[in-house]
Predict the 3D structure of the following.
Amino acid sequence: MVFFRSVSALARLRSRVGQQSSLSNSVRWIQMQSSTDMDLKSQLQELIPEQQDRLKKLKSEHGKVQLGNITVDMVIGGMRGMTGLLWETSLLDPEEGIRFRGLSIPECQKVLPAAQSGGEPLPEGLLWLLLTGKVPSKEQVEALSQDLANRAAVPDYVYNAIDALPSTAHPMTQFASGVMALQVQSEFQKAYENGIHKSKFWEPTYEDCLNLIARVPVVAAYVYRRMYKNGDSIPSDKSLDYGANFSHMLGFDDDKMKELMRLYITIHSDHEGGNVSAHTGHLVGSALSDPYLSFAAALNGLAGPLHGLANQEVLLWIKSVVEECGENISKDQLKEYVWKTLNSGKVVPGYGHGVLRKTDPRYVCQREFALKHLPDDPLFQLVSKLYEVVPPVLTELRKVKNPWPNVDAHSGVLLNHYGLTEARYYTVLFGVSRSLGICSQLIWDRALGLALERPKSVTMDWLDAFCKKAKASSA
């Protein structure tokens, strides 16, 4: 336990030292910000012309600058590692982890407004940060929270669309269907059909995105109560913040669960643009599909077991360990079980990442939450043992570039502790959170006039011929 606290403290110290100027700039901005400027859209109206000019200057002055070489491995390997996408809201460093508009997770926990002193950040504050690049005041976050609450009404036909599915359908199938049904009210679609000028595309996109962000918790909670609580839905409570209200609609009113939901939504919101759900949302949006169509497509990507569905798989795997070996399993027994999993042709869920080469900071902050609120939970203690056992085993394989835990390795244990035990539902929580990042970027896609995404594809014959020609010319 002491070891993990030391690692977490060292990581926080390194992050603070490396980004001291960024954090101090944010703090200065808080001191200068007028608490009377509450409207998020007016902030964007000021920022967008500046960023449009910045993008034009980048293109005109540096458009021909090469960013790197594309290899055959990248082409075959799912474009892994290629730099080819503009994503303003967050940036992922292989060693350091995610930064939201330049701020690390520990920095966000420090400077973003919280519901209670020393508590977890309010997701509304992160949404403001993602959209503006600025840290909001508590008053601005409260105003945004109320705006979202006022947008949260969901038409009956959305519930009817979900009810048309069997109650046994996967929660993500029901959730995505509900989002598709919300599309009927798309402001962007109406504006486009009425001939809106492209310079104004971002405005109805903004309305759609704020409406979408406001309504997805309501739809998600309906799916949960339909599947697991006999359809006994719980109305929204406008007096609560975004994360607390979602927890309330799910049926969990414990203050610690509300804190966990605030943390969960904040840290899962965005992870730069190359992951499947974010990239899919951007790709579909680049065709000028409205935000509902774009986000529904992103959810279908998130539902894959190599992406968001992994958080479901982690808890199921951990419970299989307990069922076979008991809660008090030794590290040697756990090592044997890990090898058994790998030798059966499966992966250890929750370990490894497509970009990260260190322990995921999102894992670390969830671990700190557990150390603070549930240190004696048996499954948390098992997760702690896994942290010691799994990386050396994966390193021994010599096939894994990143043997360290990612965000999915921890979230299910926390949710399970507070009573949300239905692992199949966990990816829906991920989807609600991811709406903040995908929608924030989509607004900026429209504001900056980003182009239709259309990368070039080639055949194996083309690759063979190209490589042979390259080899011959170098001989």
